[in-house]
Write a structure and sequence with these properties.
The complex is a heterodimer of chains A (about 575) and B (about 475).
Chain A (H helix, E strand, L loop, with lengths): L4 H17 L4 H5 L8 E12 L2 E11 L2 E6 L9 E4 L4 E4 L1 E6 L22 H4 L16 H9 L1 E6 L8 E7 L5 H4 E10 L13 H27 L11 H4 L2 H4 L5 E5 L2 H14 L3 E5 L7 H5 L5 E4 L15 H4 L3 H4 L12 H20 L1 H7 L4 E4 L8 H10 L4 H8 L1 H6 L17 E4 L10 E6 L2 E4 L18 E9 L2 E12 L2 E8 L2 E4 L1 E5 L3 E6 L7 E8 L2 E8 L2 E11 L5
Chain B lengths: L1 H21 L17 E9 L5 E10 L2 E7 L8 E4 L4 E4 L1 E6 L29 H6 L3 E6 L7 E4 L1 E4 L17 E6 L2 H11 L6 H26 L11 H10 L3 E7 L2 H14 L4 E5 L7 H7 L2 E4 L17 H7 L4 E3 L10 H10 L5 H6 L3 H7 L16 E4 L10 E6 L2 E5 L39 E5 L2 E5 L6
Parallel strand pairs in B: 1-4, 1-5, 6-7, 10-11, 11-12, 12-13, 13-14
Antiparallel strand pairs in B: 1-2, 2-3, 5-15, 7-9, 8-10, 15-16, 16-17, 18-19
Classes of the chains: A alpha+beta (about 575), B alpha/beta (about 475).
């Protein structure tokens, strides 16, 4: 337990070297590296405790997964790893209202062909409410990393599937094992208006709706038989039991909501109609077309989670028109009364149609603001969005009328309260779980980057992630192949580096012990060369060197540990 | 004082003009018809009531979407919208007793008996087909489950309230439920030929129907026994048997897809055995062979005007079918079935005058009061009578004339189609990522060789955009 600093250091560096030379992912599993400390202090930072509640120049202390202290006059514990940077902003970790991230749903068995399409096995029919997502959690899923980088730290995750894929759970977007992830198992039962993929019953939406009614009402009957039997078993036949119906008992009791995903206006109506008819408690996620269904949404008391997906902008395909001038305000140029009188009007019709598509697109960008103006309280779901697009999509929603405070509430306090986890999550307050997002500026600003994310006190450090590489110097100074030497505690390690490209951007690869990897974010300003070596599972590392003639010197950094690196150019590109 | 007043009024005038210039033009269309009036006086029309003859120079007074008065020279209540239909014809809104529009699903073709499913659960308010129907004077549709299964799903009787976006706004309140049955080659093809399941023959179709109805009897009896205290527990719940038990109880009208006389007789025999009375046959191409039997049973018949020979069981057919059935006292309607053909039922009805010499009222009844009776909604729609819904179709000529043109269509007193206000794009929504593909302008330079540059061209306007095929380079 009293490993000397030197030994600890060596271990760390050895790991680092190994991470270069071994396939990604080997490191974390094979060698157990003790954390230096589980205590962190973020000093002199701007803390957004909750939407609209800000403390300037405060300190946040995190210990053993809990926010130990927040405030202006907070003592930094002796054992804290200190991050002091007055440009940083700390938010509560975001909460994802519904997704499949970190969920590895087992593939259906290939030979699961139904002999009789009218009565298929339940899993072929998509009726699997007795499955639980907690048995499918995979903490090393790359989707989790993407969502964490966008600021998400906790979520309601559900299995993939068809009409009834299984029970959902509230989880953390971090941890080593699936057990680390779980906050609350079997929190919801996931459902969708989605027919079977295999052309077996139920194959259509109308049959799915009928089948949901059937399961629900028969479950009601069975539950009442069960209750009766428990009270008075003597002389009664044992009630029929199967897992598909039993899974509905907590739903019927009102303990577990049915969580539906519905994006289209018709699906939203169908789900809400079904809820009114059967009377279950509902969680509704998706709502892409929710701005078309506000009347019925206003009558519902379900928690809503709006999709963070936005449609792509329609591409202009009309040539030689004034469309470019009109695209910014299509509504003022669109002619709703347009009539095509002859073939000569066809291109005008196409242009008018293009404006209509642009107007329609605009409605989706404004959807979040539209729902908010109608006093519909929503969180967000990432299910249909790519993690990397989310900050931009949130910005777009804000640019189109959603207030930043509402957006932040929809990411933090609202979902915490919807999931009934507001005693643990949603704000940066003493005693809350240490789920934090640390950015280098206001989250909704265009050039802001997430620098660190804490999930249950564990730090995910993205400070090494440079943005897009930037080339401002004469690239001929670095193009070609370089051999380099990395000084590690275990001795020197050699490798090669190749760079190609021009002023518009550089590409390159690094090779260490036969393992080749592409470089990211390559920047060169005439003397300083930097790049990042990504890793899908192990730690990524960044390299920053100063180039002098045909040599360079600098450091390679990973997880706060640095090594010296030096190199020499061995060949230049052919001059043609 | 005066000068400054004058100045101010000039300023005011300038401001007013500016304001007028700056206000964006109001939308020519309110596609949702959210604030459209449902009070009207339609004046000076030839009113074809269908059930009470024709009124020349007639007026129809509509209040709150209901026909309040029909007659001549009605006084105009103050503040009421009027429509001068001089030289025009007003008939009851047309009813299509067999369509598949405005729904997301048609066939649950995985099970021979699917009485538990219903197209009413998957109504699609955004289907432009409804507007296209309105443009042909159509106001009510019976949108049906498909014909894959001997016992298919529930159909939906609904108004074309195009512009409403809540699916619950379309079904006619209180209309009887109807259920699709299907005989012959469709079910035997889907199950017998493709899946090696029952039914593979017409005999098998009968057996599937008999077994399902017998099971429904047992289900009904078990439920009854439980309610009477003769049974400790209710039977296992079955959405499917609930519906079929309601068929047995006479609460649901069965609508049976059929072609051949033998299978038509078969179903009537089965229904006699189970004591079911409410029955309408769809297509019923060989109905003319068994018209007296249909009349005796009291079964309705909803037929095509003149469409057949699209598969083997539909060869023995005649355009006189509707007239023969009518003359034999069978309540008969003409339907279109095929999405896209819902707009010219008035032409289809007119064909019965060429093939069968039906009177104007008889021909119009085929697309109005008769289908209303087949759907059990004749107290609401199907004729121009006081107290009925103001579903009205205004035509430029007599609707049975080949020269006629639909001008206006009222549903519950609301104008939902107006020929004068009918722009190209009446869709309620479009694809937000959609792109109109480039349309090349016609090359006038080469016009000498291609004077008709759109000859043979097909212009496709879909949700994805607009495209022109075979146009400019079609030599």
């Amino acid at each position: 337990m009293t490993a000397s600093p030197l030994r600890r250091c060596c271990l760390g560096l050895l790991c680092f070297c190994l991470s270069l030379s071994l396939p990604p992912g080997t490191l974390a599993q094979d060698i157990d590296v003790p954390s230096v400390t589980d205590t962190y202090a973020l000093e002199d930072v701007r803390v957004v405790q909750a939407p609209g509640q800000v403390i300037e120049s405060a300190t946040v202390v995190v210990r053993d997964g809990v926010i130990e202290a927040v405030g202006s006059n907070v003592d930094v514990p002796y054992d804290a790893r200190r991050v002091e940077d007055d440009s940083l902003v700390v938010y509560a970790g975001f909460i994802d209202g519904l997704s499949h991230a970190g969920v590895d749903t087992p593939d259906p068995e290939d030979d699961q062909e139904a002999d009789d399409p009218s009565d298929p096995p339940r899993d072929v029919a998509g009726i699997q409410p007795d499955r639980s997502v907690t048995s499918m959690l995979t903490p090393d899923d790359s989707d989790l990393e993407d969502l964490r980088k966008a600021g998400f730290t906790a979520a309601h995750v559900v299995p993939e599937g068809q009409m009834l894929p299984g029970a959902g759970a509230y989880v953390l977007y971090g941890g080593d094992t699936s057990d680390d992830m779980v906050l609350e198992a079997d929190a919801t039962l996931f459902a969708q208006i989605a027919g079977s993929d295999n052309f077996v019953y139920p194959s259509t939406d109308m049959a799915v709706i009928a089948q949901l009614r059937q399961l629900y009402r028969e479950a009601e009957r069975r539950q009442s038989l069960e209750t009766d039997y428990e009270q008075n078993p003597t002389g009664q036949p044992r009630p029929p039991r199967d897992p598909a119906h039993s899974a509905f008992f907590p739903v019927i009791d009102g303990q577990t909501p049915l969580a539906f995903y519905a994006d289209s206006a018709v699906d939203i109506h169908r789900v809400l109609d079904l809820q009114r008819e059967l009377g279950f408690s509902l969680v509704l996620a998706g709502l892409k077309d929710g701005f078309r269904t506000m009347d019925v949404l206003q009558q519902s008391d379900a928690p809503f989670f709006l999709t963070l997906d936005l449609p792509d902008k329609p591409e202009s395909a009309v040539e030689d028109t004034t469309l470019a001038d009109t695209a910014d305000a299509p509504a003022t140029h669109y002619d709703s009364d347009f009539r095509t009188a002859s073939y000569e009007d066809v291109s005008d019709e196409a242009e008018n149609l293009q404006l209509r598509h642009l107007m329609e697109h605009q409605k989706y960008l404004e959807a979040a603001a539209t729902l908010d103006e109608a006093d519909l309280s929503f969180g967000f779901t990432t299910r249909e969005a790519d993690g990397g697009d989310i900050p931009e999509h949130l910005r777009t929603m804000v640019e189109n009328g959603l207030s930043e405070e509402t957006a932040l509430a929809a990411l933090t306090t609202r979902p915490a309260s919807f999931l009934d986890l507001d005693d643990q999550l949603g704000t940066v307050e003493e005693g809350k779980m240490a789920n934090l997002v640390v950015t280098d500026g206001p989250y909704f600003d265009a050039d802001t980057e997430v620098k660190r994310v804490f999930v249950n006190g564990r730090q995910y450090d993205y400070t090494g992630d440079a943005a897009e590489g930037e080339i401002t110097g004469d690239v001929s100074k670095v193009l070609g192949t370089w051999s380099f030497t990395l000084e590690t505690p275990g001795g020197e390690l050699g490798g090669t580096l190749t760079l190609e490209g021009d002023e518009s951007g550089l590409e390159g690869t690094i090779t260490i012990q036969g393992e080749e990897q592409d470089l990211e974010s390559i920047s060169f300003d005439g003397s300083r060369l930097s790049f990042r070596v990504p890793s899908s599972q192990g730690p990524s590392f960044s390299v920053s060197v100063t180039v002098k003639g045909d040599t360079f010197e600098g450091t390679a950094t990973a997880q706060g540990e640095s090594l010296n690196i030096s190199g020499e150019r061995t060949s230049r590109p052919d001059r043609r | 004082m005066t000068a400054s007043l004058l100045l101010r009024s000039r300023l005011l005038a300038v401001a007013l003009v500016l304001a007028l210039l700056l206000v964006p033009p109001a939308d020519a269309q309110d596609m949702l018809r959210a604030d459209a009036p449902d009070d009207w006086l339609i004046q000076n029309a030839t009113v074809l009531t269908v059930t009470n003859g024709t009124i020349e120079n007639g007026d129809v007074l509509v209040r709150d979407g209901v026909i309040e008065e029909v007659g001549q020279d009605l006084t105009v209540p103050s503040g009421l919208e009027t429509y001068d239909a001089g030289d025009q014809y007003v008939m009851p809104g047309i009813i299509d007793a067999h369509q598949h529009i405005a729904i997301s699903d048609v066939n649950e073709a995985t099970n021979p008996v699917t009485a538990e499913v219903g197209v009413g659960d998957v109504i699609d308010p955004y289907d432009i087909s409804m507007y296209r129907g309105l443009a042909g004077g159509l106001t009510t549709i019976h949108t049906m489950h498909g014909s894959a299964n001997p016992i298919g799903g529930r159909n939906e009787t609904m108004k074309l309230r195009y512009g409403e976006t809540d699916p619950d706004a379309f079904p006619i309140e209180g209309a009887p439920r109807t259920l699709k049955f299907a005989l012959g080659e469709n079910p035997t093809g889907v199950y017998g030929e493709r899946r090696n399941m029952q039914p593979g023959t017409r005999m098998g179709v009968e057996q599937v129907i008999r077994e399902a109805l017998a099971e429904a009897e047992r289900y009904r009896d078990a439920k009854q026994a439980y309610q009477n205290g003769e049974r400790d527990r209710p039977p296992e719940h079955s959405e499917r048997m609930e519906v079929l038990a309601d068929v047995l109880a006479g609460d649901i009208i069965v609508q049976t897809h059929s072609y051949r006389a033998d299978e038509i007789l078969m179903v009537m025999n089965v229904f006699k055995d189970f004591g079911i009375d409410d029955l309408v046959f769809q297509h019923v191409n060989e109905g003319f062979k068994v018209a007296p039997e249909l009349a005796e049973f009291g079964a309705g018949a909803s037929v095509f005007s003149d469409w057949w020979a699209y598969k083997f069981e539909v060869y023995y057919s005649t355009a006189y079918n509707a007239a023969i059935l009518t003359e034999n006292g069978v309540n008969t309607s003409i339907n279109t079935d095929i999405p896209g053909q819902q707009r010219d039922l008035y032409h289809q009805a007119a064909k019965t005058q060429r093939y069968g010499d039906l009177s104007d009222d008889e021909a119009l009844a085929l697309i109005t009061i008769n289908p209303a009776r087949q759907l059990g909604i004749e107290d609401r729609v199907g004729s121009i009578e006081e107290g009925k819904d103001a579903d009205l179709a205004v035509f430029s000529e007599h609707p049975l004339s080949i020269y006629t043109q639909p001008l206006r269509t009222y549903v519950d007193g609301v104008v939902r189609f107006d020929h004068e206000d009918d722009p190209d794009d009446m869709r309620l929504r479009v694809d937000p990522e959609g792109t109109a593909p480039p349309v090349k302008k016609p090359a006038h330079a080469g016009g000498a060789h291609h004077p008709h540059c759109l000859e043979g061209a097909v212009l496709h306007a879909t949700e994805e955009g607009l495209s022109l095929k075979n146009g400019l380079h079609n030599h």
